Each structure stands twice: as C-alpha cells, then as structure tokens.
Give the backbone structure.
Amino acid sequence: MELMHSIQKRFSFKSFARGVFVLLAVYGALFGYAFLQADVTREYLQSKLASQTVLIDGLSETGFIDAQDHLGAEDLVEAPSSAHGSEHSAIENISHEDNSSLKDVVIQDAKSLGKAPVEGLFEDSAFGRLPIAKNAVETPFAAYRKPFVLNQERPFIAVVVEQFGLSNALSEEMIAALPASVSFVLTPYSQNPERWVSEARADGHEVWLHLPMENKNFPMEDPGAKGLLTRVSLQYNQDRIQWLMGRITGYVGVAAYTDDTLDNAGQMFKNMANDLFRRGLGFLELNSEEKSFFEPIAEEMHTPHTAVQSYIDVVDPQRPAIKKALKQIDAQGGTLVVVRPSPRNIPALKRWLESLQKRGIQIVPVSAVAAANNY
C-alpha cells in the first residue's frame, strides 16, 4: 500500500500527457516522411532488381534460330495501335554513278534518321500499319535507310547486330556504344518494338525486321509462335507475316534465314516473297552457308538485297570468323558480317570497328550494300 501511495504522489498526469503528445508527434513525423519518400524508395529498390535477359556467348557459327523465337504465345504483345506522326526528313536518292567522284563516305555518322511512318508509305490493317511503296522511287527502303554513299574505291565492312529489342540492357548498349553506320535486326517478339526502332533511328541506326521461319532443323529449332511454316495453308502464313510486318513501322527491309526447306512449299513462299518485295522493302539473307530461297526472287524483282557472309564473335580476335572477314575485305573489297549481342561482344565490337577505321576501312550500313545489288 505504501508503494502504491508513493507512486500516486510522484505521478503527474500533466507530465504524462505531455510525454504522450511528444511521442505521437515524433511518430507522426516519421510516418509523414516515409509516406512522402515511398515512391523514391520503391524506384530505388526496383532499380536493384535483375530485370534483363543475358545472352550467352558460344553459339554456333552456322544456321540458327534466335533465342527470342522460343517465346510462347502468352509472352507476345499485340501489334501496337497507337497513332504515329507523319514528320520525316527527305532523303536524297544518289545513283551509283555518283560514287566514282567521291573520295570519302558521305554522312557516315549522321544522326536522327527521321520519324516513322512516312505518309503514303503504309496501309492500315487488322494487324497494324503495313509498309507499302508509293511508287518505284518512294519506297520504305528508300525512306527509312540510312543515307550513305558507298565509296567503292575504299575497303568496307557492313555490320549487322541481331536480336535487337530482346534485352533492354543490351539494346540500350548497342545504341549508345556502336557507330551509327552499324545496322540492327529487330526481333518481332520484342515487348516494346516501337521504342527500340524510334531510339535506334534517333541515333542514326537503320533497322531491319527479322522474319522467323522454318529451316532444315525444325522442330529442334523452332521459329516461335508467329514463325512461317511449310506445312500450313497460305492464309495461315499470310496472317502471320502481316502480324510480323505490323509490329512496327520504320524498318528498311526484312531479314530472314532461308534454306532449301522452303522448297517443300515453294510456290507459297514465292507468293509471300513477291508480296514483300512489291511493298518496297529490302531483303537481307541471314544464311551465310547455303543458297538463299528469297534472293533469286529479289534479284528478279530488282529489289535491294544482300546476304551475310559470316557470323563473328568479336571477343576473340584470333577466331577463324574474324580472320575470314578480314580476308574477304582484302580479296573482294568488302564484307557483311553478323554479330550476336552479349555483354562482352558489344564493347569488343566497338573497339574492333575503331581499329578497322584507323586502317581506312569504311563502316557501312547494310542498305548501302543492298542498294548496290539493285542495279
């Protein structure tokens, strides 16, 4: 009892209330600060999460199907339907006869290729905006290619990096690190193709669209949910190819790995090739080892076209593919190579191209080589 009486004498309700008020004020201030900083904290934590795809070196030098082609239908994004601007920069058409008077490459590092699409060079469809030619001169190839005059008196190398748009981190590095004359092949399975084409073109890189299709290693190598196949109907493949073309606008042409497997449905694929080339698109053959199915059709239709000559891993300068590319430059004046992106390959490619330029070798866009085959 004496203890309780002593506590009651010492206890001050006023002091207790004041202490509770101070404590509540402190907690209130902490809560308010945490609330105001919530967005910043969340963004910081998200920035620390691993969110990018990492591609692994060591793929074969021969036929391939891109890693992105194994995505399922649930991973795909529907064709974009947002409105596009119509502003673009006019591109001067320069004939091959003009090349003889040039001693240096023209506009090799020009930035910003202009916005896409260009009015009159697309048609609306259920699959998005599809490329069309306005006439024999005004075509998607002419409008969206990188302006460049190939000086045929100097050795050159055309470099195309594939799988563009598959990994955010690698795609950003490709744009930032590589010379503007390096071309990109966009995967149609990219989650944000509009962003990547826009950013690449703003930095001066031309973009080609990859068309995944069946090859001799099918089904071990699967072209993916929207790949073109030989044992299906023409309408089935036409729907797929329109989905692929409608993914984005602003690409110079299409790139595909073709072989004699397509002979199993030769007339169907010839019809599709005819439709592609009537639209004014260029063609890039990705098969460096065998006869192309599409190239003879492109030749017949006077379509700008070319084919890669080797796949190279730039990390090791002593690899046979690197030596082969250099021999091709010495023997025939130029070559066209494909590089698969990886965290090591992109910076190595940048250094290698710088060393080639110091030796007087031109770095040219793929369209410059394709255009030379149109005469």
Q: What stands out?
A: The radius of gyration is 28 Å. The CA atoms of residues 235 and 268 lie 10 Å apart.
